[in-house]
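in:
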């Protein structure tokens, strides 16, 4: 499960680790879950020239976008905190998948029961 900080690191090319994670997932057929709120947050932070990299990531056969339906929005909102962070935690918890982040401190105030957080080096 990739959060917005990991997406920014990948799309901006600032982390070889995020790139290695994505391309290894493609080679191994590992599903990459991406919350829709993380896409929105990432898109707003990237420069125009980095948007095509995000487009490639979203079109990879291993990428699954967790949509923000009405039911999902209520579940995300019930967790509190920043919506993009809450959505990431909910995705990781629901899918029993590690939450990969470049900044684990943004989750310190959240209930992470049942969520393994992996920080990019």
């Amino acid at each position: 499960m990739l959060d917005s900080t990991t997406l920014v690191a990948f799309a901006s090319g600032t982390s070889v680790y995020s790139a290695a994670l994505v391309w290894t997932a493609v080679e191994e057929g590992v599903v990459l879950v991406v919350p829709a709120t993380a896409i929105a947050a990432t898109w707003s932070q990237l420069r125009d020239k980095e948007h095509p990299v995000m487009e490639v990531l979203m079109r990879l056969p291993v990428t699954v976008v967790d949509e923000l339906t009405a039911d999902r929005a209520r579940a995300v909102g019930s967790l509190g905190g920043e919506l993009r962070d809450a959505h990431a935690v909910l995705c990781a918890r629901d899918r029993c998948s590690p939450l990969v982040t470049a900044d684990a401190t943004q989750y310190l105030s959240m209930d992470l029961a049942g969520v393994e957080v992996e920080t990019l080096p």
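note: The domain at 4-119 is CATH 3.40.50 (Rossmann fold).
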